[in-house]
Amino acid sequence: MFAVTLYSSLFALALSASGVLAQDPPSSTYPAVPLAQKRFDSPDSLPEKVDTDVGLIRGTQKGYNKCDKTTEGQDSLCQTMYFNSIDDFCLWAPPETGKEVGSIEGEMVAWCTKPGHGTRLIPAGALKGVQWMKTPDYVQAVGFLDQTLLNMTPDDFGGEMDPHGADLRGNPMGGVVFSNAYNGKYQQAVEWHNFIGSNAFCFKACDPNGPNAAHFCEHVFDRIGCAYNAPNNAQKDVFESCQGDNQDFPGVYTVDGKAVTYTQPPESLGAISSMPYTARVPQSSSCVTYTSSVLYAAAPTVSTSAATTTTAATSSGSKASTTSKSTAAATTSGAAGSSTSAGNGASIVAMSGVSLFGIVFAALFFA
Question: Which parts of this chain are annotated as the region Disordered (predicted)?
């Protein structure tokens, strides 16, 4: 997590811009209990909203956590997600089109591959290759996608979501992750991170019973993407599930037999043009390949010319009906490349690069 002095600077800047001057952020800026410290035994034990602390900077939680068949469909604002297997996982993506991820990380909602979770469904054809990996300490999905089908602009470099954030309320605020991949029963994945953008994604959910969950699911290296936070061998058009070894802790590498921790430079210094190391890609084994149409048979189809979706699971839902319908259009307008900042404590600076998989510095994010 960034130092408290950085939080103070960010909040002081935001307060100053709004006409409120302060030397330090008031205590009401932070939740009484940070999101990463909130614990829930199962999805059934969740309250209507996990984030009940109204901060001065970001306002209220966008969606809700009590999700069921009444909330399922392409209007859902469910912010409870599931991360179970290659055919049953979710990603955080925008609730509406037209805004870049870096400006709405606090508002992202769950998009899932399988119905039954009370969420939106990832449309057919959106996933262009997925590698699912189960290691001793975490489960991870890395892949390629058509991000326009998840309400993202076509050239959005994206952002990073995690359960921390500058105000400790998480990105998204109130976002909670559950997985049954560790021991067959649903457990809250307390530490996780999700990069999405440049038509690629990676999501890692660390075993809450592991001693190093916070290290494997580190959240401070938000400027260096999937290649360093989730090193992988994902391939486009390949859908496979593997066993794997643990990666090195993100940001940790070895020089002359000694462990060295990389320090991410502040955004104010400009583009990251080089790295002192290349992340080691862990060994994988027992890989099984699948056909995407079989894996994601329940995925809704999306019209490329109209902002509509078609699926048997679609429901307006009593909660979802309080907001305008999500478009999920296949093509959207908007361009990345400008420097923006948002009240959710996130900022983004677009830079040249290829994707989130190489030494890519396509986007910089505050986590």
Answer: 308-341
